[in-house]
Amino acid sequence: MRKKQLIAFMAVALKGGLRNRVLAAIVVVGLLLLLSTPVVAVFSMRQVLALATSYSLSIIGLMGLLLTLFLAMGLLATDLEQRQVDTVCSLPISRSTYLLGKFLGLAIIIFLAIAILGLFSAGALFVLERIYPAERAFSWGVFFTGLWFQYWVFLIVGAITLLFSTVATSTFLPLALSVGIYFGGYSTEAVRYFLQTGGGQERLGPVVRAFGQAVYWILPNFSAFDLKAQIVYSVAMNAKGLLLTQLYGLAYLGVLLLLATMAFSRREFL
Amino acid sequence: MFIFVVLLVGASVSLTRVRDVQPPEARLGFFPPAPVIKVLAADQYQFLSQLISLQCVFYFGSLVESREQRPNWRNLYQALFTATRLDPYNMDSYYFAQAVLAWEAKMIPQVIELLKYGFEHRPWDFSLPYFISFDYAFFLKDYKRAGEYLAKAAELNPEVEWYATLAARYFYEGGTTALALAYLKEMIPTARNEAIRKRMVTRVAAFEKILHLEKAVLAYTDHFHTEPKKLEDLVEAGLLAKIPEDPYGGSFFLDNEGRVRTTSRLAHGVASRGTKKN
C-alpha cells in the first residue's frame, strides 16, 4: 500500500514536471548545445576537443542546477499555495511517503534532463573527436561516469532545497540557502587544505580554523563528485575514491531526506 | 517606441566607438586571483580558465591587427597565470604563453615558470618540456638545462627521435659532453628507427673523441698552466698520439674559447666554415 502511494506521488511529481514542459525546454537547450559546441571549440589553439568537452559539461552543469532549483522549489511550494497539502495530509497517507514520492519524481526528471543533454553533448563530441582527435584518447566511460556523479550533485542540491522548503514559509530562503550551499560545497575542500597549511595556521586563529573544519564536515563535499579533469584531460580515475564518493552521496542524500521527512511531519498546516 | 529605438541605435554606435579606444588594460579586463574565482565559480572554473585563455587570444589578435595599441604584456601574463592556476591542465594557456609572451614580450623566465607549472600537472605532454628546452637554448643559451628538458621530451615522445640527438647536442654545448655521451648511450638501445640509431651511434663516436680531446686539453692546462692554442700542441706535449678523425668527415679544432669543435659541426655534409683558433 505504502509502495503504491509512493509511486502515485512520484507520478504526480513527474507529471507536474512534464506539464511544465521542462523536458521540452531541455531538448531545445540540448540542440543549442549540439550546434554551439563546435563553434566555440574551434577557437582553441591546441585542445579543441578539451574545450568542447569543458563547454558542454559547463552547460549541462548550469542547466542541471537551474532545473533542480526550479523544480525542487516548486515541489512543495505549489501544493502549499494551493492548499493541496492540507487535503493530502488529511488522508491516511504518511507525510514521509508524500515527500519521498515527490522527491523521486524530481529525481527522475533530473535524470531524464541530464540524459538528454548528455546525449546531445555526446553527439557533438563524437563528431569533433573524429575531426580533432585528442592527444590522449577520449573515454566515453569516464564521460558518462562524470555525468552520473554530476547527477548526484543535483540530487543532493534538490534534497537540500526540499529540506529547507519543509521549514521555510517563503520560496526565496530555500533558494538562497541552496545556492549558497552549492557554491560552498565546491570550496570547502580547498579551504580545508588551506587550513592545514602553515600559511593557514599562521593567518587564522584556532576558532576560525575549527569553524572551517566544521563547515567542511557539515556541507556536502561536491569537489569529490567533480570528474571534469578526468573527462576533459583523461586524468586517471581513482576507483576506490569513486566508490567512496558514491557511498558518501547515498548516505548524505539519505540523511537529508530523513531530516526533510522529520521536519515535514512536525509542520503545522493552518 | 521610435524614440527609444533611435536612442538605442545611437547609444550602441557611440558606445562601441568609445570602447574601441579603451586603453589596453581595460580591454583585457581584470581577473581576480584564481582562488577567489574558484570559490565563486563552483564547478565552472575549468571552463572559465579556457574562457580567460580565449579572451587573451582575442585581445592579442585584435590589438596586433589594428596596430594602434600595444598589448599590455603584464596584464596578459597575469591573465594566463590566473587561467593556469584555475585549470593547470589548460594547454591553450601554455601554448599562447610560449607563442606570444616568449617571442613578442620576451618574458622568458615567466614563460618558463608557467610551462614548468604546466609540466608538473601534464607529465604526459612532451610539448611542454620541448618548449622549455627551446626557451633555455634559444633565448637564455642555457644549453645544460635545455638538454635536460629535451631529454624529458624525448622520453615522452620517442617517435620523434631527433629530440634525443638534439638533447645530446645541447648537453655538449652546455659543456657537459660526458652527460651527452651517457644520454645517447642510453637512448641507442631504444631507438626504433635504424637510420636514427645509426646517427646516434655516429654521434656517440664523435662525442667520445671530443671527450677524449677535452680531457687532454684539461691535462695540458693543468701541466703547463696555460691553454693549448691548437690541438697539435696536445700531440707535441705527448698527451695525444694523434688528433682523432671526426666520424662526420670534418676536422677537430679548438675555438676562440678553448672549446673542442669540429668543422663538420657534428653533421654530415656541412661545409667546413668553423672558426679555428689559428
Ends apart, CA distance between termini of chain B: 90 Å
Work out the largest interface and the residue count of each chain.
Answer: A-B, 29 and 23 residues
Order of helices and strands of chain B: HHHHHHHHHHHHHEE
Number of domains of chain A: 1
Overview of the molecule:
The complex is a heterodimer of chains A (270) and B (278). Chain A has 11 helices and no strands. With 270 residues, chain A is mainly alpha-helical. Chain A has one domain (2-266). In chain A, helix 6 packs across helix 7 (172-196). The radius of gyration of chain A is 21 Å and the shape is globular. Chain A starts with a helix and ends with a helix. Chain B is an all-alpha fold and 278 residues long. Chain B has 2 domains: 1-110, no CATH class; 193-278. Chain B has helices at residues 2-20, 24-28, 34-41, 45-66, 73-86, 91-101, 108-121, 127-139, 143-156, 162-173, 177-187, 194-224, 231-236, and strands at 252-254, 260-262. In chain B, strand 1 (252-254) and strand 2 (260-262) form a beta hairpin. In chain B, helix 3 (34-41) packs across helix 5 and helix 7 (108-121) runs antiparallel to helix 8 (127-139).
